[in-house]
Amino acid sequence: MKRKKTATSGTSIRLSAHEKICAERMQTLIKTIDELRSDVKQLHSDMSKGKGVIAFLIIVGGLVGSVLAILKFVK
Prior knowledge:
Helix content is 91%, strand content 0%. By secondary structure, the chain is mainly α.
């Protein structure tokens, strides 16, 4: 004799399929969030390096300007 599918067995099959889909989505979200975190860290370090380069260029420009100003007044 064939067993009839009851409402609860159909529901449990749908729930388990839904749970699999949700688990895959969560794994994808977690992976994406981890990638975004690493990208933000990399951008932060790049910005810090850029700030250092700009500060260095301002200091060198100031020194060159000072030397040129002194040479202009000495003549």
